[in-house]
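Weekly sync notes, structure subgroup
Attendees: PM, AL, DS (notes)

Item 1: joint prediction request from the bench team. They want all two components modeled as one assembly rather than separately. Inputs as received:
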Amino acid sequence: MNFRRVLPLGAAVTGLLLVVAIASHGRPLSGSGHPGPTASFFDYVYTTIVIVAIAMTLVTIYAFAGMRGRLWTDPGRRWHLISTVLMLAGALLFAYLLQRGHFLATLHKLEQQHASTGAQGAGGKHLPKGAHARGARLRWDEIVLIALLLGGMVVVGLMNRSRRRLRPLPRLRTKRDALARALDESLDDLRTDPDLRRAIIAAYARMERALEAAAMPRHPAEAPFEYVERVLESLDASAASVRRLTVLFEWAKFSQHEPEPVMRDEAIAALIAVRDELRSPLQAAA
Amino acid sequence: MIELTVDGDAVEVDDGATILDACRRLQIETPTLCYADTLTPVNVCRVCVVEVEGARTLVPSCSRKAEAGMVVHTDSERVRTSRRLVLELLGSSVDLSLAPDALRYIADYDAHPERFGENAATVAQPVKLDNDLYVRDYSRCILCYKCVEACGEDHQNTFAIAVAGRGFDAHISTELDVPLPDSACVYCGNCIAVCPTGALMPKSEFDLREAGTWDESKQTEVDTICPYCGVGCNLTLHIQDANIVKVTSPDDHDVTRGNLCIKGRFGFEFVQNRAK
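Output from the run, pasted for the record:
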């Protein structure tokens, strides 16, 4: 898995674990002396709902801005938007009920009545009623934590972006070098793999992966030849050899004809030519 | 009604119509192999693909519904390249000599199947002669799924055949690859009616072709009503040298939609029994 994807995912999971740890105060939900979760647990639930509702509001506004005129001409989009707005309204209503509707207070009263009944039956002390009778409150520690996480992600993203904008020449060199190295490995595959069809497909696939690593991925809708034509424009390399390799890939991948032994030589020759063409500007620059 | 533009011409089609319907309304010939008016499109042959402005990929015109304001190109370089490649791959690995439409498309699109050479490792196998009613020659099969659809949900609901294997190993097979007489096949022959390449063929036609006496130019067609039951299926008798050589049914018939049962399609030999 790509490290750049793992890092924010790990940070998000760690953050969530931290929120849960703070919410539970290091004790299980039902281990606080009376049955059921603590009042602070419901505070965190309420805060999470508020944060999600705000996020959904922002997404809805963004979607509105993106769709503009297409919104009312496309029934599918219209329905998606209406359903999103309805879900948002439902979440806000739920949050409002939690805070203002004394839903939690009622719940706690019922729990305390149940606990005091049990204590009296066992000869225990009578618990004061309504000790926790309050609505849910916003937990600012959670909000600060999530704000810090989001801020950190934005900073990392901006740093990556600014890094990409700098030093265009070394990036081009990296692109060419990555492809040339990948072609070296593909040559080894072609020479050693007894299954020629598999070797040719592997060679082409490795070239695609190298180009993807160099920020020139194949678009999902692109056919091999369309992709190669676009990449060649970007790389300024001669097209004949790359096209030949793509023809061989087309043959190996889609044709029911077995590749002939001479194709192995052709594929190797094409790859060597591509590699040399890609390396020559580097040598000239050195 | 939906209005869209195909190759620069505006056209109106009914709600639910496909791009192919719009093309046909404008008399733009669009090649099709796996499509049939009486079958559910399965989108496997990809020779009917067209370019829709705003779409990432080429779309199969036989199944893609027309939308208001859609702008379609049926003859762009991208479309022609894609169709040409499909025809070359098919033509290089399958015997299309009994598929006149496919041969015409190959010529129209300047496809060169020969560039892939000979000796394709295809699904070709000896002609299967395991019953008296029809033969299966899978060296002609383009895996268009039409026979599977006709045998299954679209027409007969017998499900005697399906596509087995994947990739280069894909082939039409009975359940567990048993011989046809041991399968669920009821010999309705509706698979033969939809086969576009002659891979499935009545035994009577196969015998005449083997003998070199099959000649469509000498054949006449006579429409009649099937005498076996009260359904009233239309039959088209193909007659050569005063003999019935094949029976089909018109696709546009309200009752049969091109389908028949074993008696209607194969039970004609008694007519030619001169001894009775």
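Discussion: Chain A touches chain B through 14 residues (CB under 8 Å).
Action: AL to compare against the crosslinking data before next sync.
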